[in-house]
Design a protein that fits this description.
alpha+beta; five-stranded antiparallel sheet; four-stranded mixed sheet; globular; 8 helices
Length: 425
């Protein structure tokens, strides 16, 4: 039974149960409050790897709590510690009850730990091999950014794809304070924002997806059989060359992810067995922000911004008109990635998105927008591009900044995405 009083008693030691896959086992679970110096609760447990287990794959831990037999609502934002990509050994999750139940005492508090296989952080497609070969597609399980992603092989011989979590996932809710959406566009007070184009709108993305950790390069196209230039230089291609033209019957969103025969994406799909495509505007901005709500993905926040502040961010994030000049072709990894290890999301090279371009992306006033695909057509028959570029001022390279161009234009860059599929299936 719960009473609405200040939490002053030590939480009862928990009787616990465990559900686990054959990958790992969890045992020796104890629950203790740090009273009297803190109300936080330590949930300690032992993770063991069976003899035939795979040590490169971790597990995610889900906490389900009850007071006696009464279920409790434990938010992801109230939990910290060993929740994801957990390996063998003694582990600890910390629950802050003041987040969910600031004025409640529990007399029969108990927890169940549910264990599931972790999702990989990175997928690597090795273009030196052929589809079906051992090692053609491999996965990495990293808690943060994979440092070795920046070696030469990964920008010339490989596609390195970073998994981006759905906004409905526990992974995102832990970042967002429990929200199941992100804010697409800029706050109404953001310096230099375009109020007719930048919302803001709440946006829910219900599926994980893979996004390339760098812009598509000439060497990658060459090794995939879709180009002739042997270089790490960033590739410039038209939207039409990537996907096919309206005259060929290819017209996102009405024809979905279909691409024309002979298009670059068709070649990449046949070569890899993966449904590569361009990102929607919503996917692009979500991947760019990586959990930030500031003008740039560096997370730098100020009460008021100036042009100089924006230029300072671009000095570390990418090339723009005022940070290195208008020569756009810096090598990969020349600038800092965002929190998800994705490079060059600000400046350097504008990148195609799937969507037709219109100013108001939420004419129906949906709240939230769910997996938005953009309008069925554009007044000017132009497609959206994001990122700004080396010829843009820093303000044009913000996370929310939007531009557009005719899909036949050959001077724009490409960032690949593809649907997430579970490698264990």
């Amino acid at each position: 039974m719960k009473t609405t009083i200040s939490m002053i008693a030590i939480l009862l030691l928990a009787a616990v149960s465990v559900k686990a896959e054959d990958l790992y086992t969890v045992s020796d679970i104890s629950v203790r409050q740090r009273w009297p110096w803190s109300k936080k609760v330590d949930i300690d447990f032992l993770v063991s790897l069976p003899p035939d287990g795979n040590p490169t794959v971790g597990v995610d831990i889900t906490v389900m709590a009850k007071d006696g037999s009464t279920p409790l609502s434990i938010s992801q934002s109230s939990l910290s510690g060993d929740l994801s990509l957990v390996g063998p050994g003694w582990r600890r999750i910390v629950w802050d009850p003041t987040v969910d139940y600031p004025d409640t005492t529990f007399t029969q508090f108990n927890v169940t730990l549910s264990v599931t296989r972790s999702k990989p952080t990175y997928m690597i497609v090795d273009l030196r091999k052929q589809l079906g070969d051992d090692g053609f597609i491999t996965y990495r399980y990293e808690k943060g950014v994979w440092d070795a992603a920046t070696n030469y092989n990964n920008c010339y011989y490989c596609f390195v794809m970073r998994r981006v979590p759905a906004t409905t996932s526990d992974e995102w809710k832990a970042i967002s304070g429990g929200k199941d959406y992100f804010v697409l566009g800029s706050p109404t007070t953001e310096y230099t924002r375009n109020s007719s184009r930048e919302g803001p709108n709440n946006c829910r993305l219900t599926n994980d997806f893979w996004v390339s950790h760098i812009e598509l390069g000439e060497g990658q196209l060459y090794n995939a059989g879709a180009g002739s230039v042997q270089s790490v230089r960033r590739a410039q291609r038209s939207y039409d060359a990537m996907r096919g033209t309206v005259a060929q019957g290819i017209n996102w969103p009405s024809t979905g992810h279909a691409v024309a025969g002979g298009s670059i994406l068709k070649i990449l799909r046949d070569r890899t067995g993966l449904e590569f495509d361009l990102p929607t505007e919503a996917e692009w901005e979500y991947a760019c922000r990586a959990g930030t709500t500031t003008p740039f993905a560096d997370g730098v926040y100020k009460e008021t911004y100036t042009d100089a502040d924006y230029e300072a961010s671009m000095n570390t994030l990418g090339r723009c008109k005022t940070s290195g000049g208008t020569v756009w072709n810096d090598p990969p990894y020349a600038y800092s990635p965002n929190a998800w290890g994705i490079f060059d999301m600000h400046g350097n090279h504008n990148e195609w998105c799937l969507d037709w371009m219109i100013d108001n992306v939420n004419a129906a006033q949906a709240d939230p927008m769910v997996n938005p695909v953009g309008p069925p057509s554009s007044v000017g028959n132009t497609r959206a591009v994001r990122n700004g570029g080396a010829t843009y001022p820093a303000s044009g390279c913000r996370s929310a900044a939007r531009s557009h161009v005719d899909p036949s234009n050959t001077s724009y860059g490409v960032r690949l995405v593809c649907p997430y599929t579970d490698p264990a299936q």
